[in-house]
């Protein structure tokens, strides 16, 4: 554990690794919006994006190709460039004395690396040894709903189905969804190049590699990461992940089994007051969270909280959250805020 916080009460030299991607651009927006204390901001990316520029606080900043010297004097790196990139530059960042908050899956299940959702386990951020992992987008959204309920009554089992937007596959997948949708409307046969199948007026089971247990990698991320964040290694959890034709917000159908019956009104009251959660629920109008409610916004919207008619110990709920924002960029920036505040 850090004996002294080197980030406390001073502006930082901060690098955004993968600044040209959808999440990297959202990070830049949030750093400005939330007035994060920055002395110097460095935009880093691959050679393909080097030389391009982005505006931050009215100033034009140029993206530079990442090298060993890129991290000289850097205090903090917000990385969203993929697992291989994070692994490659981890030691260079450490050698420079910097801390990396990594949005890839490279370090999430490393027992020495905190996996942090600030509304759920903020204390873990201070235990870092130079690396803090940002969880998978679907896991972040799920734990925001599970944690406050689990604090009230222990959870035995979770069954979750996700409805994941194109943004989870990056900016190119979002653009492809727009283009292929127009192709269908024009009467043409859509042919996907970014995703394995066209998302235009279509959906398919998540295309991450299947594991030996017949669950895909994305589904097992939810299982393993939720257990780690909730500090419940024996939590029974099953996930089915689906890619759907939505641009940037994920949705999840969640069935939660508790040790004993959980009154619906208690659950509703708890979630209404939970940090990072917004309750959208109008039973009479049959109006519950939708992706358009959360796109470009911070909160995870939860609703349609109801008793599972097949099991008295189970509740059902539905949630939606912006994949780029709370599912990635915002969570990373919030972790950074923990470091400068603690």
List keywords for this structure.
single chain; 342 residues; alpha/beta; Rossmann fold; Dihydrodipicolinate Reductase, domain 2; 2 domains; seven-stranded mixed beta sheet; six-stranded parallel beta sheet; 8 helices
> How helical, in percent, are the residues?
25-40%
First-to-last CA distance: 13 Å
Using the alpha-carbon principal axes, give the shape. Answer: globular
Which class do the helix and strand fractions yield? alpha/beta
Beta-strand content estimate: 15-25%
Characterise the protein shown here:
The structure is a single chain. With 342 residues, this protein is α/β, with parallel strands linked by helices. The protein has 2 domains: 12-135 and 328-341, NAD(P)-binding Rossmann-like Domain (Rossmann fold), CATH 3.40.50.720; 139-323, Dihydrodipicolinate Reductase, domain 2, CATH 3.30.360. It is 30% helix and 25% strand. It is built from 8 helices and 15 strands. The chain has helices spanning 22-33, 83-95, 137-152, 171-185, 217-230, 264-273, 291-294, 325-341; strands at residues 12-17, 38-45, 53-56, 59-62, 64-65, 76-79, 99-102, 131-133, 155-164, 204-205, 236-243, 249-258, 277-279, 300-307, 314-322. It has a 7-stranded mixed beta sheet. A 6-stranded parallel beta sheet has the order 5-2-1-6-7-8, with helices on both faces. Strand 6 (76-79), helix 2 and strand 7 form a beta-alpha-beta unit. Helix 1 packs across helix 8 (325-341) and helix 3 (137-152) crosses helix 8. The radius of gyration is 20 Å and the shape is globular.
